[in-house]
């Protein structure tokens, strides 16, 4: 197995500042599109879009604002993966 220089430098820097290898691995794995975290964000996005659509149909303005804000937060997190 070959380790690229950039990854090796990141691991060395993480160790230097006191991050354990498990913490580093968890951080890196949660930042890939295949991670459970990313998949959970996609499910949250879809659920919020559904709730927003229902809020508009039912005229629930208060809920609509809350769900729109939550959707913005989820989309901001999703953009970090691109």
Percent strand equals under 5%
Please report the number of helical segments. 4
Helix proportion range: over 70%
Spell the H/E element sequence: HHHH
Cα-based radius of gyration, to the nearest Å:
18 Å
Number of strands: 0
Structural class: mainly alpha
Characterize the largest beta sheet: strand count, sense, and whether it forms a barrel. Answer: none
The stretches of 5 or more residues where confidence is low (pLDDT under 50) are none
The overall average pLDDT, rounded, is: 85
Shape: elongated
| Gap between N and C termini | 26 Å
Task: Give a brief rundown of this model.
The protein is an all-alpha fold. Helix content is 77%, strand content 0%.
Topology:
Blueprint: H1 5-16, H2 21-29, H3 36-58, H4 61-79
Helix pairs in contact: 3-4
